[in-house]
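Amino Acid Chain and Its Fold in Token Form
===========================================
Purpose: to set a sequence beside its fold so the mapping can be learned.
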Amino acid sequence: MFIDSHCHLDFPDLAANLDELLLRMQENQVTHALCVSVNLPHFPRVRALAEAHENLFASVGVHPDYEDQIEPEADELADLANHPKVIAIGETGLDYFRLTGDLEWQRKRFRQHIRAARKANKPLIVHTRSAAADTLRIMQEEGADEVGGVMHCFTESWEVAQQAIAMNFYISFSGIVTFKNAVALKEVAKNIQLNRMLIETDSPYLAPVPFRGKLNQPAFVRHVAEEIAQLRAVTIEEIAVATTDNFFNLFKVNRNG
């Protein structure tokens, strides 16, 4: 079985067809999915999805791209995470690709999320783009290794992956790993420790080959697993078992929940 460790089922394009998406998951042996929060105003609908469906989970956090948000405080995030179906803090992190100028507010927000994760004793979902050095530095300074987490939709170097793993983080691969031009990322997927790997869709974005350019969905996560299995010359069952075990180990949730 497979688990989509990062998706956005509350986004309108997916929420409008939720029943069909859940059926496609079942048909493709995708047993669970983590619905990830990107801002606090929409967090209630993320949490509601997890409450309504036994095989869905939620996170709480504010994405680094959302500039015009009321900045969340660590205590507030930790309180919102005090729910049995809210299993992580995030997504959080740094993004120097989409936004420019003085981004100290991003770094402050990231620190608040790490502090919230430590208060709530729940792992982090970290987004980093064109900001790996600062991301790793802040993780180290704020003690992110105490709770661990996942470097989601990973596109960084082997060196960054190893530094994150040393801080008790997992590396999650999205549909990007199936793209022909993702040569360096394929090498990371080929060589990384199997017990530190997760798979995800980040749907509705980044649909894997052969669906590239189309609306992504959790059922497509098996194509990510297939690509990794081929790169590592192992069976897809081996990738499925490892990434599923890793998900339950990281997020500390009941396999039947």
